[in-house]
Design a protein that fits this description.
Oligomer: single chain
Strand content: 5-15%
Strand order of the largest sheet: 3-4-1-2-5
Order of helices and strands: EEEHHHEEHHH
Distance between the termini: 40 Å
């Protein structure tokens, strides 16, 4: 079925879903990144490599199949590069955990940038990252966040345990 990939900016702790876009040409082997990220299935990348991947898609799959979903994802990736192209970029895949998984240290720092392959619906169901609740849904009170978690996040066990993390993020960033 293929691996799922995410393009992430380490400095800003933001990522975008790439779905199953083949990213081999966009990765820098061997891993040259920070030690704290070596435990993940991750590769370093940069603006040049990502633009090379876009070019390969535009001159390959999109010439053969112009309506391919990769063509709908490319504007989101270009937008991500506009904001983060000069930052440290990694490509994570789903062979292991991701730093934004709720059992990872510092998971709450991360924010998913909504793009073509984002799996949320318009009601942001199953969104548990505090920055997404705050920035995208304008939830700034713990009571509102708790209602969201209980009503929309079926895979979040015991959402009450997230209160201290949510409040910490509010204090630091709002």
């Amino acid at each position: 079925m293929g691996l799922e990939h995410r393009l992430a900016c380490i400095e800003c702790a933001e990522f975008i879903e790439l779905h199953k876009w083949s990213t081999d040409c966009m990765q820098d082997f061997p891993f040259l990144g920070r030690d704290e990220y070596k435990k993940y299935s991750v590769c370093h990348t940069d603006r040049k490599l990502i633009l090379q991947g876009i070019s390969e898609a535009e001159n390959g799959i999109l010439k053969q199949t112009p309506e391919h979903w990769v063509g709908k994802l490319i504007p989101d990736v270009r937008g991500f590069l506009e904001l983060h192209g000069d930052h440290t970029l990694y490509i994570f895949d789903d062979r292991g955990d991701m730093p934004w998984y709720s059992d990872e240290p510092e998971w709450h720092r991360w924010k998913e940038i909504r793009g073509y392959m984002t799996t949320w619906n318009d009601q942001f169901e199953d969104v548990e990252l505090p920055r997404n609740l705050i920035d995208d849904m304008n939830i700034i009170s713990w009571n509102e966040a708790l209602v969201h978690y209980k009503n929309n996040c079926p895979f979040t066990d015991n959402p009450e345990k997230l209160e201290s993390v949510f409040r910490l993020y509010i204090k630091q960033n709002v």
